[in-house]
Amino acid sequence: MFRPLPLFIGLRYTRAKRRNHFISFISLTSMLGIALGVTALITVLSVMNGFEKELRVRMLGMSAHLVISAGNDGFNQWQELADSLKSQPHVIGIAPYIQGQAMLTYNESVQGALLQGIDPLKEPQVSQVTEKMLSGRLDNLKAGEFGVILGNELASSLGVEVGDKVSVVVPQATVTPVGVLPRMKRMTVQGIFSVGMHEYDSAFVLLHIADAATLLRLPEGHIHGLNLKLDDMFLAPRLSQQLREKLPMGYHSYDWTYRHANFFRAVKMEKTVMFVILTLIVAVAAFNIVSTLVMVVTDKQADIAILRTLGATPNMVMAIFIVQGTLIGVVGTLLGFLGGVSLALNIETLIPAIEHALDIQFLSPDVYYISDLPSDLQWLDVVKITLLSFLLSLLATLYPAWQAAQTQPAEALRYE
Q1: How far apart are CA 48 and CA 13, in angstroms?
Q2: Which of 77, 120, 69 is nearest to 220 (CA)?
Q3: 287: enclosing H helix or E strand
Q4: Angle CA(119)–CA(124)–CA(125) in degrees, nearest 5?
Q5: Which residues, at least 6 apart from 285, have a Cβ–Cβ distance to it below 8 Å?
Q6: Which DSSP string corresponds to 330-368?
Q7: Contact, 204 vs 133, CB < 8 A?
Q8: In angstroms, rounded to a whole number, what is the distance separating the alpha carbons of residues 134 and 152?
Q9: What does the pLDDT look like over 142-174, one tens digit per residue?
Q10: Are strands 252-255 and 179-193 parallel, antiparallel or unpaired?
Protein backbone atom coordinates (compact mmCIF):
# COMPACT_ATOMS: atom_id res chain seq x y z
CA MET A 1 0.00 0.00 0.00
CA PHE A 2 1.37 3.40 -0.97
CA ARG A 3 2.23 5.79 1.85
CA PRO A 4 4.15 9.09 1.48
CA LEU A 5 7.71 8.75 2.78
CA PRO A 6 7.50 11.56 5.41
CA LEU A 7 4.29 10.07 6.85
CA PHE A 8 5.76 6.55 6.89
CA ILE A 9 9.00 7.58 8.63
CA GLY A 10 7.23 10.00 11.01
CA LEU A 11 4.86 7.27 12.18
CA ARG A 12 7.81 4.83 12.40
CA TYR A 13 9.70 7.23 14.68
CA THR A 14 6.62 7.65 16.85
CA ARG A 15 6.09 3.90 17.29
CA ALA A 16 9.75 2.98 17.71
CA LYS A 17 11.18 2.28 21.16
CA ARG A 18 13.66 5.07 21.69
CA ARG A 19 17.02 4.59 23.33
CA ASN A 20 16.44 7.82 25.24
CA HIS A 21 13.54 7.12 27.60
CA PHE A 22 13.54 10.73 28.75
CA ILE A 23 12.26 11.78 25.31
CA SER A 24 9.43 9.26 25.60
CA PHE A 25 8.59 10.62 29.04
CA ILE A 26 8.38 14.21 27.75
CA SER A 27 6.21 13.06 24.81
CA LEU A 28 3.84 11.31 27.21
CA THR A 29 3.77 14.36 29.48
CA SER A 30 2.96 16.63 26.54
CA MET A 31 0.18 14.30 25.41
CA LEU A 32 -1.36 14.08 28.88
CA GLY A 33 -1.00 17.84 29.39
CA ILE A 34 -2.90 18.57 26.19
CA ALA A 35 -5.56 16.02 27.15
CA LEU A 36 -5.91 17.58 30.62
CA GLY A 37 -6.13 21.11 29.23
CA VAL A 38 -8.74 20.21 26.62
CA THR A 39 -10.77 18.28 29.21
CA ALA A 40 -10.64 21.23 31.63
CA LEU A 41 -11.62 23.72 28.92
CA ILE A 42 -14.62 21.72 27.71
CA THR A 43 -15.82 20.97 31.24
CA VAL A 44 -15.40 24.48 32.66
CA LEU A 45 -17.05 26.20 29.69
CA SER A 46 -19.94 23.69 29.83
CA VAL A 47 -20.44 24.41 33.54
CA MET A 48 -20.32 28.17 32.95
CA ASN A 49 -22.83 27.77 30.11
CA GLY A 50 -24.99 25.76 32.50
CA PHE A 51 -24.88 28.47 35.17
CA GLU A 52 -25.68 31.15 32.59
CA LYS A 53 -28.62 29.15 31.26
CA GLU A 54 -29.95 28.45 34.77
CA LEU A 55 -29.71 32.12 35.78
CA ARG A 56 -31.32 33.19 32.51
CA VAL A 57 -34.24 30.82 33.10
CA ARG A 58 -34.68 32.08 36.66
CA MET A 59 -34.47 35.72 35.59
CA LEU A 60 -37.04 35.19 32.88
CA GLY A 61 -39.27 33.31 35.31
CA MET A 62 -40.61 36.70 36.40
CA SER A 63 -39.32 38.88 33.58
CA ALA A 64 -40.79 39.00 30.09
CA HIS A 65 -38.76 38.47 26.93
CA LEU A 66 -39.87 41.85 25.60
CA VAL A 67 -41.61 44.85 27.18
CA ILE A 68 -43.56 47.69 25.60
CA SER A 69 -44.20 50.69 27.84
CA ALA A 70 -45.20 54.33 27.61
CA GLY A 71 -43.47 55.77 30.67
CA ASN A 72 -45.06 56.58 34.02
CA ASP A 73 -48.23 57.96 32.46
CA GLY A 74 -49.10 54.65 30.79
CA PHE A 75 -51.61 54.25 28.00
CA ASN A 76 -55.22 53.12 27.67
CA GLN A 77 -55.65 51.79 24.13
CA TRP A 78 -53.66 48.71 24.93
CA GLN A 79 -56.20 46.15 23.71
CA GLU A 80 -55.80 47.33 20.12
CA LEU A 81 -52.02 47.26 20.47
CA ALA A 82 -52.12 43.77 22.00
CA ASP A 83 -54.29 42.49 19.15
CA SER A 84 -51.86 43.87 16.57
CA LEU A 85 -48.88 42.36 18.42
CA LYS A 86 -50.49 38.92 18.40
CA SER A 87 -50.09 38.88 14.63
CA GLN A 88 -46.33 39.40 14.96
CA PRO A 89 -44.29 36.25 14.24
CA HIS A 90 -42.83 34.42 17.27
CA VAL A 91 -45.10 36.21 19.82
CA ILE A 92 -46.85 33.52 21.89
CA GLY A 93 -48.02 35.45 24.96
CA ILE A 94 -49.08 39.00 25.91
CA ALA A 95 -50.06 40.31 29.35
CA PRO A 96 -50.63 43.86 30.69
CA TYR A 97 -48.96 45.15 33.84
CA ILE A 98 -48.94 48.09 36.22
CA GLN A 99 -45.85 48.86 38.27
CA GLY A 100 -45.19 50.98 41.30
CA GLN A 101 -43.13 51.26 44.45
CA ALA A 102 -44.49 50.64 47.91
CA MET A 103 -43.60 49.96 51.52
CA LEU A 104 -45.04 46.93 53.35
CA THR A 105 -45.53 46.86 57.11
CA TYR A 106 -46.58 44.02 59.39
CA ASN A 107 -46.44 44.42 63.18
CA GLU A 108 -43.07 46.14 63.65
CA SER A 109 -41.48 44.96 60.39
CA VAL A 110 -41.10 47.31 57.43
CA GLN A 111 -39.85 46.40 53.94
CA GLY A 112 -39.63 48.25 50.63
CA ALA A 113 -41.18 46.46 47.65
CA LEU A 114 -42.03 46.68 43.98
CA LEU A 115 -45.73 46.38 43.21
CA GLN A 116 -46.61 44.49 40.05
CA GLY A 117 -50.23 44.64 39.00
CA ILE A 118 -51.06 41.64 36.80
CA ASP A 119 -53.98 39.94 35.12
CA PRO A 120 -54.07 36.47 36.78
CA LEU A 121 -55.57 34.94 33.64
CA LYS A 122 -52.97 36.31 31.22
CA GLU A 123 -49.85 36.39 33.39
CA PRO A 124 -49.07 32.64 32.96
CA GLN A 125 -48.62 33.37 29.23
CA VAL A 126 -45.49 35.46 29.92
CA SER A 127 -44.04 34.25 33.25
CA GLN A 128 -43.55 31.10 35.30
CA VAL A 129 -44.97 32.44 38.54
CA THR A 130 -47.77 29.85 38.56
CA GLU A 131 -45.18 27.06 38.62
CA LYS A 132 -43.17 28.80 41.35
CA MET A 133 -45.93 29.12 43.95
CA LEU A 134 -44.96 27.70 47.35
CA SER A 135 -48.41 28.25 48.81
CA GLY A 136 -51.66 29.73 47.56
CA ARG A 137 -52.67 30.15 43.92
CA LEU A 138 -52.31 32.93 41.39
CA ASP A 139 -56.03 32.92 40.62
CA ASN A 140 -56.71 33.78 44.29
CA LEU A 141 -56.12 37.38 43.22
CA LYS A 142 -59.59 38.82 42.65
CA ALA A 143 -60.39 42.35 41.54
CA GLY A 144 -61.62 44.47 44.45
CA GLU A 145 -60.50 42.03 47.17
CA PHE A 146 -57.01 43.58 47.47
CA GLY A 147 -55.05 40.37 47.86
CA VAL A 148 -51.29 40.15 47.36
CA ILE A 149 -48.76 37.43 46.57
CA LEU A 150 -45.27 37.91 48.04
CA GLY A 151 -41.82 36.54 47.32
CA ASN A 152 -40.72 34.02 49.94
CA GLU A 153 -37.81 36.16 51.20
CA LEU A 154 -40.03 39.22 51.54
CA ALA A 155 -42.65 37.16 53.39
CA SER A 156 -39.95 35.72 55.65
CA SER A 157 -38.47 39.13 56.50
CA LEU A 158 -41.95 40.45 57.35
CA GLY A 159 -42.88 37.26 59.21
CA VAL A 160 -46.16 36.76 57.35
CA GLU A 161 -47.97 33.70 56.03
CA VAL A 162 -50.94 33.13 53.75
CA GLY A 163 -54.03 34.72 55.31
CA ASP A 164 -52.17 37.47 57.21
CA LYS A 165 -52.94 41.12 56.50
CA VAL A 166 -50.17 43.55 55.59
CA SER A 167 -50.31 47.33 55.22
CA VAL A 168 -49.22 48.61 51.81
CA VAL A 169 -48.08 52.24 51.72
CA VAL A 170 -47.56 53.93 48.33
CA PRO A 171 -45.70 57.24 47.75
CA GLN A 172 -48.86 59.18 46.91
CA ALA A 173 -50.45 61.69 49.25
CA THR A 174 -54.05 61.67 50.48
CA VAL A 175 -55.54 64.90 51.86
CA THR A 176 -57.41 64.31 55.13
CA PRO A 177 -58.89 66.62 57.80
CA VAL A 178 -55.72 66.09 59.85
CA GLY A 179 -53.36 66.88 57.01
CA VAL A 180 -51.64 65.18 54.08
CA LEU A 181 -51.02 61.48 54.66
CA PRO A 182 -49.49 58.77 52.45
CA ARG A 183 -51.93 56.37 50.81
CA MET A 184 -52.26 53.14 52.77
CA LYS A 185 -54.27 49.99 52.21
CA ARG A 186 -54.64 46.79 54.22
CA MET A 187 -54.23 43.75 51.99
CA THR A 188 -54.48 40.00 52.55
CA VAL A 189 -51.59 37.68 51.68
CA GLN A 190 -53.05 35.19 49.19
CA GLY A 191 -49.87 33.32 48.27
CA ILE A 192 -46.08 33.05 48.42
CA PHE A 193 -43.76 32.31 45.49
CA SER A 194 -40.07 31.54 45.00
CA VAL A 195 -38.25 31.84 41.66
CA GLY A 196 -34.75 31.40 43.12
CA MET A 197 -33.58 34.97 42.39
CA HIS A 198 -33.01 37.38 45.28
CA GLU A 199 -34.05 40.32 43.09
CA TYR A 200 -37.59 38.95 42.82
CA ASP A 201 -38.02 36.84 45.97
CA SER A 202 -37.08 39.71 48.27
CA ALA A 203 -38.94 42.62 46.67
CA PHE A 204 -41.78 41.57 44.36
CA VAL A 205 -45.43 41.97 45.36
CA LEU A 206 -48.08 40.73 42.92
CA LEU A 207 -51.66 42.02 43.03
CA HIS A 208 -54.60 42.19 40.66
CA ILE A 209 -54.14 44.80 37.95
CA ALA A 210 -57.45 46.48 38.81
CA ASP A 211 -56.43 46.82 42.49
CA ALA A 212 -53.05 48.22 41.43
CA ALA A 213 -54.77 50.84 39.24
CA THR A 214 -57.02 51.84 42.16
CA LEU A 215 -54.12 52.00 44.61
CA LEU A 216 -51.91 54.06 42.28
CA ARG A 217 -54.84 56.21 41.08
CA LEU A 218 -54.49 55.39 37.40
CA PRO A 219 -57.39 56.38 35.10
CA GLU A 220 -59.76 53.54 34.24
CA GLY A 221 -58.35 51.21 31.61
CA HIS A 222 -54.81 52.58 31.88
CA ILE A 223 -51.77 50.30 32.20
CA HIS A 224 -48.04 50.94 32.31
CA GLY A 225 -47.10 48.43 29.63
CA LEU A 226 -47.32 45.03 27.98
CA ASN A 227 -45.14 42.00 28.65
CA LEU A 228 -44.47 39.75 25.66
CA LYS A 229 -43.20 36.18 25.50
CA LEU A 230 -41.58 34.75 22.36
CA ASP A 231 -41.09 31.20 21.16
CA ASP A 232 -37.34 31.98 20.94
CA MET A 233 -35.97 34.39 23.54
CA PHE A 234 -32.88 35.15 21.44
CA LEU A 235 -35.08 36.78 18.79
CA ALA A 236 -36.15 39.44 21.31
CA PRO A 237 -33.45 42.06 20.44
CA ARG A 238 -34.29 41.94 16.73
CA LEU A 239 -38.07 42.09 17.31
CA SER A 240 -37.63 44.92 19.81
CA GLN A 241 -35.75 46.94 17.19
CA GLN A 242 -38.48 46.30 14.63
CA LEU A 243 -41.22 47.37 17.06
CA ARG A 244 -39.39 50.58 17.99
CA GLU A 245 -39.64 51.64 14.34
CA LYS A 246 -43.39 50.92 14.20
CA LEU A 247 -44.70 52.02 17.63
CA PRO A 248 -46.35 55.46 18.03
CA MET A 249 -44.43 58.38 19.51
CA GLY A 250 -43.90 58.04 23.26
CA TYR A 251 -43.89 54.22 23.30
CA HIS A 252 -40.76 52.31 24.25
CA SER A 253 -39.67 48.76 23.51
CA TYR A 254 -36.84 46.91 25.25
CA ASP A 255 -35.90 43.25 25.62
CA TRP A 256 -34.47 41.04 28.36
CA THR A 257 -30.87 41.48 27.17
CA TYR A 258 -31.19 45.24 27.72
CA ARG A 259 -32.75 44.88 31.18
CA HIS A 260 -29.96 42.54 32.36
CA ALA A 261 -27.19 43.83 30.11
CA ASN A 262 -24.57 44.34 32.84
CA PHE A 263 -25.08 40.85 34.23
CA PHE A 264 -24.71 39.08 30.90
CA ARG A 265 -21.69 41.22 29.98
CA ALA A 266 -20.05 40.15 33.23
CA VAL A 267 -20.80 36.48 32.53
CA LYS A 268 -19.41 36.79 28.99
CA MET A 269 -16.24 38.43 30.33
CA GLU A 270 -15.79 35.66 32.91
CA LYS A 271 -16.16 32.99 30.23
CA THR A 272 -13.60 34.77 28.03
CA VAL A 273 -11.09 35.09 30.89
CA MET A 274 -11.52 31.44 31.88
CA PHE A 275 -11.06 30.40 28.25
CA VAL A 276 -7.80 32.35 28.00
CA ILE A 277 -6.46 31.04 31.33
CA LEU A 278 -7.25 27.41 30.59
CA THR A 279 -5.92 27.73 27.05
CA LEU A 280 -2.53 28.45 28.64
CA ILE A 281 -2.59 24.91 30.03
CA VAL A 282 -2.99 23.55 26.52
CA ALA A 283 -0.33 25.95 25.22
CA VAL A 284 2.25 24.89 27.83
CA ALA A 285 1.61 21.21 27.09
CA ALA A 286 1.67 21.82 23.33
CA PHE A 287 4.96 23.65 23.44
CA ASN A 288 6.49 20.78 25.39
CA ILE A 289 6.38 19.17 21.96
CA VAL A 290 9.15 21.63 21.02
CA SER A 291 11.42 20.12 23.68
CA THR A 292 10.53 16.61 22.58
CA LEU A 293 11.25 17.24 18.91
CA VAL A 294 14.46 19.18 19.56
CA MET A 295 15.83 16.17 21.44
CA VAL A 296 14.55 13.77 18.77
CA VAL A 297 16.23 15.82 16.04
CA THR A 298 19.49 15.76 17.99
CA ASP A 299 19.15 12.01 18.54
CA LYS A 300 18.39 11.35 14.86
CA GLN A 301 21.11 13.51 13.27
CA ALA A 302 22.74 10.51 11.61
CA ASP A 303 19.40 9.21 10.30
CA ILE A 304 18.57 12.62 8.85
CA ALA A 305 21.98 12.82 7.17
CA ILE A 306 21.54 9.37 5.60
CA LEU A 307 18.07 10.29 4.34
CA ARG A 308 19.52 13.46 2.79
CA THR A 309 22.28 11.49 1.02
CA LEU A 310 19.62 9.10 -0.31
CA GLY A 311 17.80 12.01 -1.94
CA ALA A 312 15.39 13.27 0.71
CA THR A 313 14.72 17.00 0.31
CA PRO A 314 14.72 19.44 3.26
CA ASN A 315 10.93 19.72 2.93
CA MET A 316 10.58 15.94 3.27
CA VAL A 317 12.75 15.93 6.41
CA MET A 318 10.70 18.79 7.83
CA ALA A 319 7.47 16.90 7.11
CA ILE A 320 8.75 13.82 8.97
CA PHE A 321 9.06 15.70 12.27
CA ILE A 322 5.86 17.67 11.72
CA VAL A 323 4.05 14.33 11.43
CA GLN A 324 5.66 13.07 14.62
CA GLY A 325 4.84 16.18 16.68
CA THR A 326 1.36 16.55 15.26
CA LEU A 327 0.56 12.95 16.17
CA ILE A 328 1.34 13.73 19.82
CA GLY A 329 -1.01 16.72 19.66
CA VAL A 330 -3.78 14.81 17.88
CA VAL A 331 -3.73 11.93 20.37
CA GLY A 332 -3.73 14.36 23.32
CA THR A 333 -6.57 16.39 21.77
CA LEU A 334 -8.67 13.27 21.12
CA LEU A 335 -8.15 12.05 24.70
CA GLY A 336 -9.12 15.51 26.00
CA PHE A 337 -12.15 15.60 23.70
CA LEU A 338 -13.39 12.24 24.97
CA GLY A 339 -12.68 13.13 28.60
CA GLY A 340 -14.19 16.62 28.41
CA VAL A 341 -17.38 15.57 26.63
CA SER A 342 -17.88 12.59 28.95
CA LEU A 343 -17.33 14.74 32.05
CA ALA A 344 -19.53 17.59 30.83
CA LEU A 345 -22.41 15.24 29.98
CA ASN A 346 -22.25 13.40 33.32
CA ILE A 347 -21.16 16.11 35.75
CA GLU A 348 -24.72 16.61 37.07
CA THR A 349 -24.73 13.00 38.30
CA LEU A 350 -21.02 12.72 39.08
CA ILE A 351 -20.86 15.67 41.52
CA PRO A 352 -23.80 14.45 43.70
CA ALA A 353 -22.13 11.03 43.84
CA ILE A 354 -18.86 12.59 45.03
CA GLU A 355 -20.74 14.74 47.56
CA HIS A 356 -22.52 11.65 48.88
CA ALA A 357 -19.30 9.62 49.05
CA LEU A 358 -17.35 12.36 50.87
CA ASP A 359 -20.36 13.59 52.90
CA ILE A 360 -19.81 17.20 51.82
CA GLN A 361 -21.71 19.76 49.76
CA PHE A 362 -19.84 21.98 47.33
CA LEU A 363 -22.66 24.52 46.87
CA SER A 364 -24.75 24.84 50.01
CA PRO A 365 -28.38 25.90 49.32
CA ASP A 366 -28.17 28.09 52.44
CA VAL A 367 -25.54 30.23 50.68
CA TYR A 368 -26.04 29.78 46.94
CA TYR A 369 -29.24 30.18 44.91
CA ILE A 370 -28.02 27.45 42.57
CA SER A 371 -26.93 24.52 44.73
CA ASP A 372 -26.47 22.04 41.87
CA LEU A 373 -23.68 22.13 39.31
CA PRO A 374 -25.45 22.56 35.95
CA SER A 375 -23.81 21.73 32.64
CA ASP A 376 -24.74 22.84 29.14
CA LEU A 377 -22.44 21.27 26.54
CA GLN A 378 -22.33 23.40 23.39
CA TRP A 379 -20.74 21.63 20.45
CA LEU A 380 -19.53 24.88 18.91
CA ASP A 381 -17.32 25.41 21.98
CA VAL A 382 -16.04 21.83 21.68
CA VAL A 383 -15.11 22.37 18.02
CA LYS A 384 -13.31 25.65 18.83
CA ILE A 385 -11.33 24.04 21.67
CA THR A 386 -10.25 20.98 19.68
CA LEU A 387 -9.23 23.09 16.67
CA LEU A 388 -7.28 25.46 18.92
CA SER A 389 -5.47 22.53 20.56
CA PHE A 390 -4.62 21.02 17.17
CA LEU A 391 -3.31 24.34 15.80
CA LEU A 392 -1.13 24.94 18.88
CA SER A 393 0.30 21.44 18.53
CA LEU A 394 0.99 22.01 14.84
CA LEU A 395 2.69 25.36 15.49
CA ALA A 396 4.89 23.76 18.15
CA THR A 397 6.35 21.37 15.56
CA LEU A 398 7.45 23.98 13.02
CA TYR A 399 10.70 25.24 14.56
CA PRO A 400 12.20 21.81 15.48
CA ALA A 401 11.18 20.45 12.06
CA TRP A 402 12.80 23.43 10.35
CA GLN A 403 15.99 22.87 12.36
CA ALA A 404 16.00 19.21 11.24
CA ALA A 405 15.67 20.32 7.60
CA GLN A 406 18.81 22.49 7.99
CA THR A 407 20.96 19.48 8.92
CA GLN A 408 24.08 19.19 6.73
CA PRO A 409 24.84 15.52 5.93
CA ALA A 410 28.61 15.99 5.89
CA GLU A 411 28.65 17.67 9.30
CA ALA A 412 26.29 15.10 10.85
CA LEU A 413 28.26 12.08 9.58
CA ARG A 414 31.75 13.42 10.26
CA TYR A 415 32.15 11.63 13.58
CA GLU A 416 29.97 8.58 12.88
Answers
A1: 41
A2: 77
A3: helix 261-299
A4: 100
A5: 29, 30, 31, 32, 33, 34, 36, 37, 332
A6: HHHHHHHHHHHHHHHHHHHHHHHHHHHHHT--SS-TTT-
A7: no
A8: 8
A9: 988 889 999 998 999 999 999 899 999 888 766
A10: unpaired
